Amino acid sequence: MRKIIILFFITSTTAIAQPNGKLLASQCFQCHGPNGRSVGEIDSLAGESAAEIYDELVEFKFEPKNDIMNLQARIYTDAEMRAIANYIGTLPK
Amino acid sequence: MDRRSFVKSLGIGAVAASTSLDKVDAAVAKPFEIVVVGGGFGGASIAKYLKLWGQANINVTLIDSVAAHVSCILSNLVLNNQKTLANLSFNLSKVAAKNHFTFRQGLVNKIDKAGKKVFAVAPDKTVFSVAYDKLVLSPGISFVFPTGMDPALPGATTPIPHAWKAGLQTANLRAQLRALPSDGSAVVVMTIPKAPYRCPPGPYERACLIADFMKRTKNGGKLIVFDANPGILAEPINFGKAFTQLYQNIIEYAPNHSVVSVSGTTQFATKSITVTNGTFSRSETCHLLNVIPNQIAPKLLFDAGLIDKVNGKQWAGVHLDTYQSLFNPHIYVIGDAHDSNQPKAGHIANSEAKVCADALLRVLGLLPPRVMPDEAPVTNSACYSPITATTASFLTAGYRFDPAQQLMVRIPEAFGEAETINGDNYKTMLAWANNLFADVF
To answer: How many whole angstroms separate alpha carbon B343 and alpha carbon B195?
Structure first.
């Protein structure tokens, strides 16, 4: 029993110290559509893997351009980009 | 989302889940009652996301005075026939059914803070009240009308429309544009309010579209833009280029000019305006006068004591990490009516709504407490502005909560306007708006 209580403590502490991927990812949906499913010219995000989303965000953030996604990616920390990618990676296409 | 994925989304492992479930089940016994006032971009977004993230633990009732919200976003495209008002109207009963909340039509005119209920007047003039555990206000803006501009006149025919809340006045402005003389002799005057006002790039965008319309269909003419601010406030490079190059023969841009008075008695007759730059006054007569008045928070918020009038505030003060009122712990204010350095605009109102929904669920014990700085609130703003009937620019920004200042601070490296005005931006603008509409309504 004691083991289980300790496990809970560690798990929950670890979990809530991460940026909130669900909330952060929802801030992509204004342009990319609810749940990452876009209805027009802008790319859908749903169906992409966490690794793909993270790599794209990093590329946008650091490439020497100022298009809208370059600017948007510069809002987020590395931990936030990982949290966004991990959440979007779970969204069905 | 089912209960399992709700808990999973908290990021807590299986052992923790059973503990959290017990807590959530206790809350399910009696759902929290959340009332949202205002069915625009802020209000409709928070109603949707509270239900999405709170599920059966939350009941949401949204109240608005109108049956359908007309989007201000893209409404300048009604002026040049690219969009219709019907394209931009969202029936709030349908939105409520789709997003699992309740809609009641009524003009909210009183908040009983002690009794925790709001009073509203329905279209049939009956008064009803709705009780709340938490109240979210997203009521938008009110105008401070200059001398000579009568807000009581019907929007469809008023001689001097603002058209800064989309609807009948937008159709009126469109009709007046179409009635301009076609021989190049048309004179149009528009005025830009002192900041802060709804949609910083909006007035400059409107000036461009009016000039484009005059250039294409009226053999040109003159558009005088009196700006109460010292210069172009948003996208200065692209709007600057448009004013001085693309529309150099049409637009005269006059910064630092505030409205003194206006006059005009009928919709299609001559109007006049007097402005001042603080030293000299100047008067003009014109065929069409579009005054966008100065803006403040709606009276409801002043009456409810949610604005620090003593210190000259005109917008509702909130804790910017949660949008909880500085003056009442059960009231939250999002969107244009709250006081911050985030712009007053639909896209970011949706962004604020999500941060507020998340914060409210934490206050209600339905999510674990926020951990700072890892979960510092972040919002974003994006806005595409048409410059002609086929090209557009954009403006984007991001904001992050700074605990030291208790402010949402703009992130310098994430702020900027489009490098060029082009057709791709115009196409992206339509896609952006459609996705935003889908995320809100």
So the answer is: 10
